[in-house]
Amino acid sequence: MKKLWKIAALVLSLVLVVGCFAACGSSDDVDEPDAGAEATSEAGTTEAAESDRLADGVLTVGTNATFPPFEYLGDDGTPDGFDIALIKLIGEKIGVEVEVVDMEFDSLCASVGNRIDVAIAGMTVDPEREKTVDFSDNYYKAIQNVLVAADNTEITDMSSLAGKTIGVQLGTTGDKVATEAVENAEVKQYTSYSLAVEDLKNGNVDAVIIDQTPGEIFAGQNTEELKLLGAENFDFEDEYYAIACPEGDTALVARINAALSEIQSSGEFDMLVDEYIGNN
Ligand code: ARG
Q: To test ligand 1's pocket by mutation, which of 86, 144, 190, 211 has the most ligand atoms within 8 angstroms of CB?
């Protein structure tokens, strides 16, 4: 009997020693989340990286609040919109506070995993972006449209865009399409779509290539001056919005996906669509 107790005591102390080592290891990671995430890649990596990232109880979210109805500045000057409501709900499900940082769209992906934890910005899943971030599940289907002056009869399809001056937001898929798919276009890149739309109204660009839902909002705000051409006559492909997460942080992606699917199956997602997007 005594011997058994001795063995039990030995096992217990071994467990304590090993436990202490493990704890010391993870507290190092807390000081340097990025270094920690890489250094622990042999053992339980993403688990450790993910818990470090949310350890302070805050999910820091980057957006670019110039893209209604997905994100815009509300009356109080802080970011609001479908994406903002969605990520706050996701934060609620995960049990963390959500802090939104408004920044340039073009710097969002590079900031994921350092300045911000994730980015939500009507951001299309794109192979180029997937080189530096991991995306959550898709939450919205989109496609590019073309905004032109209400009295424009010349631009009707892809080939009639050739050689035209096209406004886009810098670094967007609209930018990519205008640059790569339209022949000889002069592409003017703006820091926001509202600036591109202003220049379209001033006659400084011939067209703006923009995602359909925001395109409908801008056209709706300027019915006298602008009209929106649907995707039918242009070679645009379907796009899917998702949340950009730090590369390799599979645990964080899994938690976001679980929250997203809960929000979708509970009907809360459709309520947000009704509230922020509706039928336009
Ligand atoms: N869907 C397009 C893209 O991913 C445009 C997104 C622009 N978003 C914004 N918040 N300004 O490139």
A: 211
